[in-house]
Amino acid sequence: MKVTVGDGMAATTTGSSLAYTPRFDFRDLQLIVAGYADPAGRERELSETFGSMRWLWSQDEYVRFDRDSRELRSLTFFVPPQWIREGPSFRDGPPTRAAGLRADAVGEFAVPGTTVFHCGSGADALSCLADVRLVGREPDARLGVAPAVDLLVYEGAVAGWSLGDPARYLTDGFAAPPSGPPAPATRLRLAECLELVSSPLVDRVMDREPEAWRRLRVVERALREQREDRGRADVLHGVISRLVEDYEG
Known about the structure:
Layout: E1 2-5, E2 9-14, E3 23-25, E4 30-33, H1 39-46, E5 49-52, E6 62-66, E7 72-78, E8 82-83, E9 96-98, E10 100-103, E11 116-119, E12 125-129, E13 141-146, E14 149-154, E15 157-164, E16 170-171, H2 184-196, H3 201-206, H4 210-225, H5 230-247
Parallel strand pairs: 3-16, 8-11, 9-13
Antiparallel strand pairs: 1-2, 2-10, 3-4, 4-7, 5-6, 6-7, 11-12, 12-15, 13-14, 14-15
Helix pairs in contact: 2-4, 2-5, 4-5
């Protein structure tokens, strides 16, 4: 299968998806699928790969291919700032197809960040789309390029991504996520936190609207008092408590 990645890079699907465990860094709202474990490792990889990355003032995603084999090497996707109530439709769409990618040629390209995201109340999946016009539409293909990570293809182009059970992969920075499944409470809190740190709700928090602040304090207290799954709860609480400190006045 041929797909377009970013602003014009053509790639062909392969049978070799990435084996790395995803890391969902909630502090910086980024999904890291890579073999490196720190920013220095990311920098070292740049000399061995080609593709898209963030430059000064750009909001591009990291999509890197090995310079020798042209095989997909790593991904870093950023959660966009706009929360939406509805996401892409997967109900009757194609199932996930495990696949890698091989770039058709060596060259730099840009992959602009997605613009809207959806995460249901049970946080069963986090889905990010390049264009709000794709909301509610079924993708033409779902390429499972790593465990729980799908690229969403519309009309031959990668136009979004999805992370299944994002609470399972919660972490801070480049650290490996906790082992074992998340607690049900963590999944609920994650969905609430994603809405709280994104527009339009975060704008109402910054404007100190009473209902927005009531919701913020309820979530902060629930995370502070949660007894199970403390590692993941601490990751979420660190971000939410800082939001309280920054805007409580």
